Amino acid sequence: MIHRPRSYRAERLGQTISGDDLESLLESTVAAILAEGVFDWHTPPESNVLRSFLQGLLLVPERDVFIVRAPDDSICGAAVLAHATTRSETYSTSATITAFFIVPYERGKGLGNLLMEAIISRAQAIGAKVLDCRVRETLPDAAALLTSLGFTHWGTHPYFARIGDRTVRGLFFSKLLVPEEKAMQWQPADTPLSTPHHTSERDTLTRKPLTLYPAIDLKGGACVRLRQGEMSEATHYSDNPPAQAKLFEEAGCRHLHIVDLDGAFAGQSANVKAVEGIIANTSLPIQLGGGLRDMKTIERWLEAGVSRVILGSAAVKDPGLVRQAAHAWPGRVIAGIDARQGRVATEGWAEVSELTATDLARRMEDAGVAGIIFTEITRDGMLEGLDIDQTVALARHVSIPVIASGGVGTLEHLRALRQAADSTPGITGVIVGRALYDGRINLPEALNILEGSC
Questions:
Q1: Which residues are tagged catalytic?
Q2: Which sites are catalytic (predicted)?
Q3: What is the pLDDT, as a whole number, of residue 195?
């Protein structure tokens, strides 16, 4: 049996951290990254990026940061527990360890057990009934620790991480924190995923508002809309994107959704002049996607006045970039998950991967993105209605906001989403494109249905 000095102790940090503790945490995190990687970094990022990430992590309500202090009060280990604070009761019953390390020079003293005991105690205190953890197969000591503490290895992901040019598998572990018979009481088997219900006009006064994001898709400097993501199926609507943005602002919208279609296919920003014109011509917050594949481009647009960037193909092909950007600009990076019948598509929807939308959403949540835009490509531009079932299922598997997209053609489609959002708090908005340009949807009426938040 390993005996540890009594002076080593584990504790949960609050929302602030002293300067000395921050520097100590930075030092220990860099040591862990160099030893085996942590927070999906295998080489240490710039110190200001890591510092911003750690400080931002403390401000996220759904994350608890734990540390281990050495006898001299320096920090020699840390872990992060992710849990739900606003999700439905069904999903608030689970918590996940998203990061865990003890610095190499303090191992062999039982500190991993000390840190894990604090995590388990916290998970039980917040009502979690199961505790999940995912580790790379290259970390046998971590897998052994989990097994010794009663975790069950229930699955293996064949493409969990990329280290250099090597693909590494991931091991999925879970531990029940309550007796099995209580775990089976989470939700009756016949409980539907979504329970439709009607509300009175008075009830709507307290309903959570949904945000309507009018879409401006750019191709060759003009506003267009595609059908099912096909560039050859583009309908031209306006040669003046800045003027179109202004019209949306004057109609009462409070946000804009812009996609550089040429950039999405080319892998780099292409409609630069049009986007710059929109930024200059409106005061609305803008979320921009399409061709954002490196930190320099992301920084360029955030500094130019874009409120949030949308990372789509990078979410699948370069998750390290997503994590780095989310750490560098907390709250300003969202993931665009575009799927064909549940399978994620990339490169402007030209390629379809084997990754499911739900799996990618969970990875993006762990990476620290501020939200997810979910689009079912087969419905996009078809005006036949959103894929509400997929959207609801996705929103119930993550704790970050989900914006619905693809297929809105009538006010009834918005009412259906409004009803689904009433029972699924994670759905926070919807993107509407072709139906606005074609006049199929009256914008003031749409805003009224979504309760005045656009």
A1: 217, 338
A2: 217 (proton acceptor), 338 (proton donor)
A3: 34
